[in-house]
Specification:
753 residues; five-stranded antiparallel sheet; 27 helices; 24% strand; Rev_trsase/Diguanyl_cyclase; membrane
Length: 753
């Protein structure tokens, strides 16, 4: 029923639409309700369609907004800025997603846009790239350049874009792209480039290895040092060809434990040459601490090692002979003691070597030492290492032996070799040596005591005449200690003025009157009393303290004699002994001048006594010094004449005034041979116009014989022992009385020593 009605309504509606008149002809009232219902239904359907369309549009708009948001967030997350450049209108849109945005003008007619913000050094490059793209010469635009940020700093950017539309003239009208901040990437790139340049130019070789020690990369210095090309070593295992495989295993184990290894190695170049390298290995780990690579760095230290060897040779070798020197000797001796190895030490020097230097010159002496070294180097190697300790002093170390037979055999052979004559510069030289021997640990527990005791034994061998060897013993040590005590006592005595001067008269043999005196040193200490000259003078001569003692005696003697002259008690000369070391002083004459000037003693009243051995050490120099002294008005006497080896040819050249006959000849005058010897000496002196003084006269019989032999002056206990200044003043006063020469000997020697 209802379906039929709906059909009718539809038919009427159609008829009405086709012909209103016809429609109205029908029964309007019958169809009116149906027509209204259809209109309402159509309106509702239209509204429904509109609603559905709106919902669909809203969904599309939402998806578009989400898409735009994702695009914006993606650009912001990537650090890129979106730009849109309308070329014809001169507008520039930017998304401005940077934290530190670049201030660009949105209205710009520049090409490229906002060119004033681009770094001047990059502007031409950017302009050229953009021009090529706008002219369709490149598929897209891309450029890296610096641009000024809002905080006025230059930052690096990566600018990419593409033309998206053209006008009717086929010219670019619109272009879009992105701007990326790559400043941190550029800085990192510059650092990497810097590091790469450093690796390229560094003088040290750099090798990068994987975890299996296969080489991944090397720098040019590697090829320069090793002589191997990069292509030869890439993917090859890192090896040290001169070392066993376990050496590299030890390095790997060290790297696993400590992450680094450093050491000096030797390696062979591709041309076969050996070079020294200072090698260091380090571990490269990732963020999780896992080993990724190993980096080896090594430098060629061949030249440095060569220089070190040369310096070591210079430091440990004697420059004259090439032998190991004292420094190396002490080092080797210290090692033997530290390792507690039994060994023996032979120390020796040449007897009277100084005389060779002084008489024939140091150059010849150096030649002698070189010849001696060449000869001793021919010893078999099992005879120990030879060292030169300095001057003419040498040492031999015998390791792992204290066998007396072996040592004595070596010492005898050493003496035999040295005794063979040397021929140098047309001179035939015959020399000898003195050897001191110590054993470890018997003769010392440390290097210092061993060296000291060997020196002591050598000293005793020399004192016994030389050309011999002596083993060290305790008695030598006691003597050495005593010698050291005397040396310290002398030093203290000089400081505290314990040295006094005694005077022994020189008497005219015919008149018995005083004509002069000899100043003799006495060492008087508060605790030990008088120290014998035979005890302290040899020590003072060895240590050189005799020079200072001689200066004290000279000053005190001149000062005292000047006082006696002022008192008119004395008008003769005081004789002062000069030691060999004093006589060799280059400033001797000036020193004597100062003393005479300070004491105001006329030089005429001073006589200097020089031993025969002193002047014969260097006759030419002695003659020159003696002439200078004579030119000052000082008299010169040769002491102990006949005990040395004076040359008559030199004796006549010496500007002497007096010749003193040694006491040994005076004591021997009770024999015919002794008297003839004294007679000969007196005759020689008179032929040279010299005054003769006889020393050590103690008996009247000696005095009478000397008168017969025409000796002029005597000195000895017959008249007086050496007297202190106070006692000698009394002696001088007694000399002023009549017949002073007849004074009994007991009176003349009052308070004598």
């Amino acid at each position: 029923m209802r379906a039929g009605i709906r059909i009718k309504i539809i038919i009427l509606s159609c008829l009405w639409a086709l012909s209103p008149d016809t429609a109205f002809a029908m029964d309007w009232e019958a169809v009116q309700p149906y027509v209204l219902s259809g209109v309402l239904l159509l309106s509702f359907g239209a509204l429904l369609l509109a609603h559905l369309s709106i919902v669909k549009m809203r969904r599309y708009q939402s998806r578009l907004e989400h898409s735009e948001e994702r695009l914006r967030l993606s650009l912001w997350g990537s650090g890129d800025e979106l730009w849109d450049w309308n070329i014809e209108q001169g507008t520039l849109y930017r998304s401005s997603s940077w934290h530190s945005p670049v201030e660009l003008d949105p209205e710009t007619q520049d090409i490229p846009p906002n060119r004033q913000q681009i770094h001047p050094q990059d502007l031409d490059r950017v302009s050229e790239a953009l021009s090529m793209h706008l002219n369709q010469q490149s598929p897209y635009f891309e450029a890296t350049y610096r641009i000024r940020s809002s905080d006025q700093q230059w930052i690096w950017v990566l600018d990419r874009g593409k033309v998206v539309s053209y006008n009717q003239q086929n010219q670019a009208s619109r272009m879009t792209g992105t701007l990326k901040n790559i400043h941190h990437i550029k800085l990192a790139e510059e650092r990497l480039q810097l590091f790469a340049q450093c690796l390229e130019n560094i003088s040290d070789a750099v090798v990068i290895c994987d975890t299996t020690f296969r080489i991944l990369e090397v720098n040019p210095a590697f090829s320069r040092i090793t002589g191997k090309d990069r292509e030869q070593v890439i993917q090859q295992p890192f090896e040290l060809s001169l070392y066993p495989s376990r050496f590299m295993r030890d390095i790997k184990q060290a790297l696993l434990k400590t992450s680094s290894w450093v050491g000096e190695v030797q390696e062979q170049r591709s041309d076969g040459l050996i070079y020294h390298a200072e090698l260091s290995f380090n571990v490269v780990r990732d963020e999780q601490g896992l080993i990724q690579q190993y980096v080896a760095v090594f430098s060629d230290i061949t030249e440095r090692k060569t220089r070190e060897e040369q310096l070591s040779k210079l430091a440990n070798s004697d420059t004259l002979t090439g032998l190991p020197n004292r420094a190396l000797f002490l080092s080797q001796l210290g090692e033997l003691v530290e390792q507690q190895k039994r060994h023996s030490l032979l120390m020796f020097d040449l007897d009277n070597f100084k005389k060779i230097n002084d008489s024939l010159g140091h150059q010849l002496g150096d030649g002698l030492l070189c010849k001696l070294t060449e000869r001793l180097k021919l010893f078999p190697s099992n005879k120990g290492q030879l060292y030169r300790l300095g001057g003419d002093e040498f040492a031999i170390l015998l390791e792992n032996t204290n066998d007396i037979h072996t040592i004595t055999t070596l010492a005898k052979e050493l003496i035999k070799q040295i005794n063979l004559p040397f021929f140098i510069n047309q001179h035939e030289l015959a020399i000898s040596c003195s050897i001191g021997i110590v054993l470890y640990p018997e003769d010392g527990q440390d290097p210092q005591s061993l060296l000291r005791n060997a020196d002591t034994a050598m000293y005793h061998a020399k004192n016994e005449g030389g050309n011999r060897y002596l083993f060290f013993n305790d008695s030598m040590n006691k003597q050495a200690v005593k010698r050291l005590q005397i040396e310290n006592l002398i030093r203290h005595g000089l400081k505290e003025d314990f040295f006094s001067v005694y005077y022994q008269p020189k008497m005219d043999i015919h008149t018995g009157k005083l004509v002069g005196m000899e100043a003799l040193v006495r060492f008087i200490t508060p605790k030990r009393g008088i120290i014998s000259p035979a005890t302290f003078i040899p020590v003072a001569e060895e240590t050189g303290q005799i020079v200072e003692i001689g200066a004290v005696v000279l000053r005190k003697a001149c000062q005292q004699v000047k006082a006696w002259i002022d008192q008119e008690l004395f008008h003769g000369r005081v004789a002062v002994n000069l030691s060999a070391k004093q006589f060799m002083l280059p400033y001797l004459c000036e020193q004597i001048d100062d003393v005479l000037q300070q004491t105001e003693l006329p030089s005429y009243h001073l006589e200097l006594e020089i031993t025969e051995g002193t002047v014969m050490q260097s006759p030419t120099m002695a003659i020159d010094t003696m002439k200078k002294l004579r030119a000052r008005g000082i008299h010169l006497a040769m002491d102990d004449f006949g005990t040395g080896y004076s040359s008559l040819a030199y004796l006549k050249q010496f500007p002497l005034n007096t010749l003193k006959i040694d006491k040994a000849f005076i004591d021997d005058m009770d024999t015919a041979r002794g008297r003839n010897m004294v007679d000969t000496i007196v005759t020689i002196a008179h032929n040279l116009s010299l005054t003769v003084v006889a020393e050590g006269v103690e008996e009247k019989q000696q005095l009478d014989l000397l008168k017969q032999l025409r000796c002029e002056v005597i000195q000895g206990y017959y008249y007086s022992k050496p007297l202190s200044a106070e006692d000698f003043s009394q002696f001088l006063q007694q000399q002023q009385t009549p017949k002073a020469s007849q004074i009994p000997r007991s009176v003349a020697t009052v308070s004598a020593l």
